Amino acid sequence: MRKGSSVGVLRARAGRRRAPALAAGLLALAAVAGCTEDGDPQPLPPPPAEPVRLTFGAWGSEQEIVAYADVVEQYNALNDESQVELLTWPTADAMRTAIEDGERMPDVMLSSRDDLAWLLGEELNQPVDDLLDERGVEFGDGYSRDGLEAFSADARLQCMPYGISPMVVFYNTELVDFEKMAARELPAPDIESDSPRWSFEEFAAAADFATRPRRGTRGVHIEPTVEGLAPFVLSGGGGLFNDDATSLGLSGDGSRGALETTLELLRDPQLTLTEEQLAKAPALTWFERGKLGMIAGYRSLVPHLRQVQGLDFDVLPMPVLGSSATVGNLTGLCLSKQARSRAEAADFLVHATSTDSVARVARTGYLAPANLQVAVSDDFLQPGRLPVHAGVFNVAVRAVQELPLIEDWPALEAAVATELQQLVTVPVLDDLDERTERIDELSRQVLDPEAEPSEGFTPMEN
């Protein structure tokens, strides 16, 4: 963004708007004091126009909503021609459901990247690149390239990148002590490196080190979902989807090889949570209790873990099988095609994505900002608070892989959930080829529902 925040831009615009209003006021005074040439009273000017009423739709934690309210309040205090009302939902899914049920789409809305295909398919949003360019917003160097690419389609920037949180490994620093591991000549990463990176061998060694039967602790839990397994598949050289994204690509040679390596660890009943343990409590609860060494998650998990008394935790990027790779939780700010005023909605978008506004939300601890200036600031890194190595989130952003736009990601996960779960639970996994082929075929029912099932496709006996 050019020098001078959007607040300055808005002040300048407000100043230009007040000038005509002042001139109109002087004319009104002159009219009261004088008459026309015929002696008739000078007509009074029309009353000033009412400000445009806009809405901003957002979702998130209570702390985030308070921060969004502050951003709106600041905009309203600086602007004469439009006023913004904040509309809130607990989750992105709740907002989408409300819109699908007939509620008017907010003029400006926070959107998950998972919903971008839906927005485009229903023609609900309008591209923002030209509008931002008209307002002097130079987003090319000031925003994560991955974020810009993720919210681009049809050669246009569809929404302004707002948050980009890579999936990383959260680890209990009491159970996973890398100094002790190194002293015992066990494989261990250099966590003080400017660009920390660790191998799958070091990841597996950490899981083994954290597993202490006498204390009832386990080393690691990774959710057996498409999202949970994606970083391992991608890092191992596999493709998560086939070339045209009409199915998953887990049966490909690279993907299957990466899964074989990953499942050696995730299927080890001594190092991972058992089905019985997971039936009693989710993996996050075991981590909070100090009984689980590592889990995978996003930045939004940080404020919650900070509230757990006695829990010391830190973060590292996802482990590397071949090359660095992870997936990201991305959000953007989008403009509605039904916006009451496209110009005024764009003005608010500029304000909401300014460094000052994004920093206000980042201070809540939930947001990993796409704004690079905020990402390297203390507003995000929050020195003196856990995790100690918060810069890992910025390092891991470089490894985020852009995934195809899927209109209904939950439906995709649901279609293959049972099969993925069985990859880590069946007693003997001697048919990985057949299982991955079946998973790919099941995914096609969501990604390419009009396609005919592959010849010979039958349900697998469990």
Topology:
Elements: H1 6-33, E1 52-59, H2 62-78, E2 82-89, H3 92-100, E3 108-112, H4 116-121, E4 125-126, H5 129-134, H6 145-150, E5 152-153, E6 156-157, E7 160-166, E8 168-172, H7 178-183, H8 200-210, E9 218-221, H9 226-235, H10 253-266, H11 275-280, H12 283-288, E10 292-297, H13 302-306, E11 313-317, E12 328-336, H14 342-352, H15 355-362, H16 372-375, H17 378-381, H18 392-397, H19 409-423, H20 432-447
Helix pairs in contact: 9-10, 19-20
Write structural notes for this entry.
- By secondary structure, this protein is an alpha/beta fold.
- The protein folds into two domains: 6-165 and 329-397, 3-Layer(aba) Sandwich (D-Maltodextrin-Binding Protein, domain 2), CATH 3.40.190.10; 168-326 and 408-447, 3-Layer(aba) Sandwich (D-Maltodextrin-Binding Protein, domain 2).
- It is built from 20 helices and twelve strands.
- It has helices at 6-33, 62-78, 92-100, 116-121, 129-134, 145-150, 178-183, 200-210, 226-235, 253-266, 275-280, 283-288, 302-306, 342-352, 355-362, 372-375, 378-381, 392-397, 409-423, 432-447, and strands at 52-59, 82-89, 108-112, 125-126, 152-153, 156-157, 160-166, 168-172, 218-221, 292-297, 313-317, 328-336.
- Strands 1, 2, 3, 4, 7 and 12 form a six-stranded mixed sheet that branches.
- Strand 1 (52-59), helix 2 and strand 2 (82-89) form a beta-alpha-beta unit.
- Helix 9 (226-235) packs across helix 10 (253-266) and helix 19 runs antiparallel to helix 20 (432-447).
- The chain is globular, with a radius of gyration of 27 Å.
- Residues 1-34 have low confidence and may be disordered.
